[in-house]
Amino acid sequence: MDILIDHYSRVPIYEQIEIQIKTQIMDGTLQADDPLPSIRSLAKDLRISVITTTRAYDDLERDGFLYKIPGKGCYVSRKNHDLVREGALNEIRQKMEEIRTLAASAGLDRDTISNTWNEIWEDKG
Prior knowledge:
Radius of gyration: 17 Å
Shape: globular
Oligomer: single chain
Number of helices: 5
Distance between the termini: 22 Å
Order of helices and strands: HHHEEHH
Strand content: 5-15%
Helix content: 55-70%
Structural class: mainly alpha
Strand order of the largest sheet: 1-2
């Protein structure tokens, strides 16, 4: 499992971990019941706090992406991909609502935001 941390990002480290693990689950890199590195091992490898990796794993467990077996470790959950996509879509809608509110408060119109989105999508595509 590859996880890269950007210490200069405005995205919290625990969230960077969550996003990357979710992505690897959704794209099939990580399969149901695959073991994940231990919390301590991941913290050591990434040179971050155990508290940070614990937060990421707890959030992933809460969202149904992994399950823990006491004394054994953490594993990828068997989860319906449609349910995962629906959850992602709901999260995207929430963030888009935040963007709409911010854009309106800055006097930016829909076309400007759409053009910005298209530029971002093309750069990352």
